[in-house]
Amino acid sequence: MRIGIPKETRAGETRVAITPDIAKKLLGKGFVLQMEKDAGLAAGFKNEDYAAAGVELVDRATALAADIVTKVRKPDSDEIAAMQEGALFIGHIETCEDDGTLSAMFARNIRPLAMERIPRISRAQSMDALSSQSNIAGYRAVIEAAARYGRFFPLMMTSAGSAKPARVVILGVGVAGLQAIATARRLGGDVYAYDLRPETREQIESLGAKPIDLDIGEEGSGEGGYARELSDEAKARQQELLADELAKAHVIVTTALIPCRPAPVLVTEDVVKRMREGSVIVDLAAANGGNCPLTEPDKVVRKHGVILVGHTNYPAMMAGDASSFYAHNIANLLSIMVEESDDGLIFKDFAEDEITAAALIAPES
Ligand SMILES: NC(=O)c1ccc[n+]([C@@H]2O[C@H](COP(=O)([O-])OP(=O)(O)OC[C@H]3O[C@@H](n4cnc5c(N)ncnc54)[C@H](O)[C@@H]3O)[C@@H](O)[C@H]2O)c1
């Protein structure tokens, strides 16, 4: 069974789906790996390292003609046209937006397996690419904030005077938020955090941060560990109650999102106006409209004296580790998808495992 690894084509995408270490493991399991030459370079993995692991370095057309094609991003129309009928594609398919990718794949009988659909259950943790990449995003977001904030994060007492610690607020305490709290704490910030789901309180405290409690009059926990969308009144109340806490912050990192919904507005323009000059807001939801309406996707702007960071691909800024984690996720997923037979590796019935059943997108779903 051949796995093809074409080079990513999306602007700014530096990750690669398979790293040399993981390639070696997959080869040991009986797969044949064909990678487009230079596909790993932007992530820091050289052709020689893949070749030494046993990967065949091929041209783009050959990588795209494999039985399984794996990428970080969804395939573009040229890639879909170059894949063979009946092939399996594994990657982030970004199924919330319908831009015709899925119908183009179905028209060529290509089976899409969406990494973002891996359920957040214990058995699937090692395959959960949304989490592995969000963890990196949470870390990198805080590093970005610290680099742009013109003051210290920790309390500094020196012979030339002392500096107070930065007051950092993290909004949304999912995977990215938890890592953002941990990173901001490691840097010595005075960290506060807020999430709609009351169960996050204990997690916030266990990381040494202070929970922000708001009574918005509605229960925030929804299905599958995600938040529930609030009524318009509760949203307004949330903004109003958060405002005083946020206006006091020097650094805000926002990560609040419910999958496939526009990002909730948590930091209003009014709040930005009240923040101290030189404060920083890193908005991880920039690609989905932003938790702050002043954020501009893929730009760093200064408004009302506040620096707003709207990068939309933090994992690509840490492409070595991000690729390594992603490749682990892919290999763990592949391990439940195939079994050995007299004719070599064959696919199992994807409908029989709740993980593959959830990730595989059928034409009618
Ligand atoms: N910019 C990037 O490079 C990048 C990379 C990875 C993830 N992300 C984004 O980071 C965000 C977080 O990702 P994640 O994997 O941690 O998601 P997650 O689902 O684990 O966490 C999101 C959290 O937001 C909370 N939330 C939702 N609505 C809220 C509201 N109105 N008020 C307060 N909290 C609310 C949820 O309860 C949840 O805990 C998402 O927007 C994701 O798209 C961005």
TrEMBL record:
The keyword NAD applies. GO terms for molecular function: NADP binding; oxidoreductase activity; proton-translocating NAD(P)+ transhydrogenase activity. Its EC number is 7.1.1.1. Signal peptide: none annotated. GO terms for biological process: NADPH regeneration. Transmembrane segments: none annotated. GO terms for cellular component: plasma membrane. It catalyses: NAD(+) + NADPH + H(+)(in) = NADH + NADP(+) + H(+)(out). The transhydrogenation between NADH and NADP is coupled to respiration and ATP hydrolysis and functions as a proton pump across the membrane. Residues 4-137 form the Alanine dehydrogenase/pyridine nucleotide transhydrogenase N-terminal domain. Pfam families: AlaDh_PNT_C, AlaDh_PNT_N. Belongs to the AlaDH/PNT family. PANTHER family: NAD(P) TRANSHYDROGENASE (PTHR10160), PROTON-TRANSLOCATING NAD(P)(+) TRANSHYDROGENASE (PTHR10160:SF19). It is an enzyme of class 7 (translocase). This is NAD(P) transhydrogenase subunit alpha part 1. Keywords: NAD, NADP, Nucleotide-binding, Oxidoreductase, Translocase. Gene3D superfamilies: NAD(P)-binding Rossmann-like Domain. Residues 146-310 form the Alanine dehydrogenase/pyridine nucleotide transhydrogenase NAD(H)-binding domain. The lineage of its organism: Bacteria, Pseudomonadati, Pseudomonadota, Gammaproteobacteria, Chromatiales. The keyword NADP applies.
